[in-house]
Amino acid sequence: EAQVTQNPRYLITVTGKKLTVTCSQNMNHEYMSWYRQDPGLGLRQIYYSMNVEVTDKGDVPEGYKVSRKEKRNFPLILESPSPNQTSLYFCASSLSDGNEKLFFGSGTQLSVL
Amino acid sequence: AQKITQTQPGMFVQEKEAVTLDCTYDTSDPSYGLFWYKQPSSGEMIFLIYQGSYDQQNATEGRYSLNFQKARKSANLVISASQLGDSAMYFCAMREDHPTGSARQLTFGSGTQLTVLP
Question: CA B115, B20, B106, B37: dihedral to nearest 10 degrees?
Fold first, then answer.
């Protein structure tokens, strides 16, 4: 089944404790991205990747890192999480960055205390 | 400036009636795509419908249609014969083919919470 798999689904952590949210897709998509969703703001892009070893900042990259060592995986890293990073996070992928639909993971609800 | 504007934070509709969710966008790029996604209370994002800026006809997918008015820069979603399962948050999004300063990305509106009443 074609899908984007994100883990974990829920995560509660404390300020400053490094964490990684994993994202994997099985559709051989070139384009992957991370979004955060906050009430009243919709989804905002954090980082995206056009292909292996090619990543770039989205609209809200501060406090986040990503890597794309393999085509299928695109982890999101929070080196020192802060409470303002409490949010719902989505990983998404598409065949390219053209006008194909994005496939979304099921989301990760992160709470930073 | 907001690229995607959804002016209705919440909407109510009676079951079996049609409802229109508003979306306006702002771009100077002549080539772009418009998308609608549904997010039920379970949280996943479900793709509904796509309209390309050069498409001559309005897109339709089952009970969903996109009322595309290019000159007015609007891309309203019409849901016909509403069902209780249509209760969800709905997001309009746009992707420009030639953005300034960055690669193409999907830009989302703030969403409209639709509630279907029995």
Answer: 40
| Chain B residues with beta carbon closer than 8 angstroms to that of A98 | 97, 104
A55 to chain B: closest CA residue:
B103
Question: Which value, to the nearest 10 degrees, does the dihedral of the CA atoms of residues A4, A99, B104, B106 take?
Answer: -60
When pLDDT is cut at 50, 70 and 90, the band that residue A100 belongs to is confident
Residue B75 falls in which region: left (phi positive, over 0), alpha (psi -120 to 50) or beta = beta
Burial of B113 (0-12, 13-18, 19+ CB in 10 A): middle
Closest of A101, A52, A56, A55 to residue B36, by C-alpha: A101
Measured CA to CA in angstroms, residue B10 lies from A28, A84, B13 at distances of: 37, 26, 10
The pLDDT value given to residue A35? 96
| pLDDT band, very low/low/confident/very high, at A95 (cuts 50, 70, 90) | confident
Candidates B4, B7, B39, B45: best to mutate against A (most CBs of A within 10 A) is: B45
What would the mean pLDDT of A96-107 be, rounded to a whole number? 82
Which tens digit of pLDDT belongs to each residue from B83-100? 999 999 999 999 887 766
Picking from A1, A55, A33, the residue whose alpha carbon sits closest to that of residue A100 is A33
